[in-house]
Amino acid sequence: MSEGKTLLVDDFRRFFAVSIASSAEDIQRCFHIRYRVYCEEFGYEPKSRFADEFESDSFDSASHHCLITHRSTGRAAGCVRLVETTPGRPLPLETFCGQALDASALALLDDNRNRSCEISRLAVDSDFRRRAGEDQTRFGEPSGIDYSLREKRSFSLIAVAAYLSATALAELTGRNRVFAMMEPFLPRLLSRSGIHFVAAGSEIDYHGWRAPYTIDSADVVAHMAPELSALYQAIHADFSESWSASKLLKERAELESLRRQPRLGLQALFGTWGLSHA
Predict the structure, then answer these.
(1) pTM, whole model, 2 decimals?
(2) Residues 6 or more apart from 228 whose CB is under 8 A from it?
(3) Of 15, 104, 169, 213, which has the fewest Cβ atoms less than 10 A away?
(4) The total number of structural domains that make up the chain
(5) CATH code at 8?
């Protein structure tokens, strides 16, 4: 294990918080990062569609969102979402780039529809990038902010941490078959950390040249670089706690709603409770 890389990961954990965006405020912070990156910087989506400066689409309601926050300033630094799919609800890459998927990838997706997902809308705010050659990529290093050198060095892990957070969500939701549309440099960047996506089709010009990739979340956990394992385990532990608390609150709300229905019998009550655990 490289001591330098271990220290970098430790610094990242010191300077940044990675969380599930479960409140309306945190989800809006994700949407605003996306607006700054996808609309203002790169023009992938027209700014005129989002007068409130919150970029969102129809897939957000079927997604889990993650937010990366700079601890000392409270600034939102990055975000990512994990989109779930069902037989009647395709993934974004199927909707917009379906022609790029090869036959084996489509078969893999169809055979595992209820345990598949897509990592989507990963963005790093431009205030957290630096080198001149990287200010026109969504996953660069920081620039233009008066942070310490140690902080700036840790900013390069924001994109990797976003992928680790999406992996943790995939594990927690049982959506182990993960898909993503990526620019060519990103799989190479992730492979340095032991995250080896497999090509699932051909390149297509959609918001720039990119191609579909896939991976099993268990492979990510098993083969990630040792220095990232502690970061992933910390993210997974935090998410597990948040996930359990959120699920408990939802179940309590469902029970309270049922109790307010006086004509609902015990069989219906316990039948619904059982469904909530299916």
Answers:
(1) 0.82
(2) 9, 160, 164, 193, 194
(3) 104
(4) 1
(5) 3.40.630.30
